[in-house]
Every structure is written in C-alpha cells, then in structure tokens.
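Re: that chain you flagged

S.,

Sorry for the slow reply, it's been a week of failed gels. I finally had a moment to sit down with the sequence you sent. For the record, here it is as I used it:
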Amino acid sequence: MTDAARLWRWCGEVYRRLGVAEACLRLQDECGADVNLALTLIWGGSEGISSIDAAALSKLLDISRNWQAQVVAPLRGVRRALKPDTAAATQALRTQVKTIELEAERIEQEMLAAALPTPSGSDRALASAAENLSLYLHNLTPVNSALPLASIILSAVFADATAEEIAAALAKEGRAPRR
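Prediction finished late last night. Pasting the structure tokens below so you have them in one place:
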C-alpha cells in the first residue's frame, strides 16, 4: 500500500473518532485551516517524520493553497449552496458533488504525502506530530482558536498521551513566517 493510500485510510479512521470531525470542521471554517494538511502533518509525525522545517512547510502550503483554491473550495461552495432540505433531484446532485469533493481531497492527500520529507525513524511521534501541526497553525488566524481544536485531534490520535503532554507539545512557537 502506498503512503498516500495509508494516509487516506488513517485520516478516515481518525476523522470518525469522537470529537474529531467537529474539531476539523471548526478548524476549517473558523480558522481557515486545510484539514487535509493538518491531518497529513499529524500523520507524518506519527510515521517517524521528525519535525518539518520551514522549507518543507512552504512546499506543503503551496500545494494545499493552490489545490484548495482551485478545486476543493469551489466544489465545497457548490455542495453547500445545494441545501440539504431541497428537492430530491437537488439532493442527488448534492450527493454527487460531495463524492467529487471527497475525491478531490483524496488527490490532495496524494500530493501532500508525496511532498512530505523522508521519515527519519524518529520515535518522538507525539512531539513531531504536534510540532508539525503547531508550525502550520501558527500560519493561521486566529491561532488561539486553532490550538484547542488541535488538542482534540491530537488526543484522539495519541490516546495514551495526557492533556498536559499534548498541551506542552503544542506550545512550541511557530517556526515559519506567515505567507
């Protein structure tokens, strides 16, 4: 199985955990986060990729921003415009658009997975995942709203970690300038 396929499967499993979907949607809607990128950064840390650097984040941000702006956001806009309480034909179209939107997100994850640095064999999974995510979140506004949501997601991924361990790992300041 390819990294992209493992990432897609992992994200689906994590997204279904208690509180994660809601936290991801709030990160997206309230903070402007790309959930695919956020989850990819967490997955990378859990897979042994040490903390990413500013250059790697810049490359990932370029992929994310371009794909989101050109493909995912327009599809999401169409899906949201097709209200769930309308005619059956409209609902069928909404379902088709949602399927296409999900496929666009899967393709984005392929691109993100391919752009991740090579795993270094790091055994600091929580620390690396949190540092990667924190680096990204410090590029968002408002970061203070994003960090508690990130904590929910990291708690679901690293169920054995305490709230204090997660908070400490997320406390790292962002290392990359905003773009």
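What I noticed first: The chain has one domain: 3-170.

Talk soon,
D.
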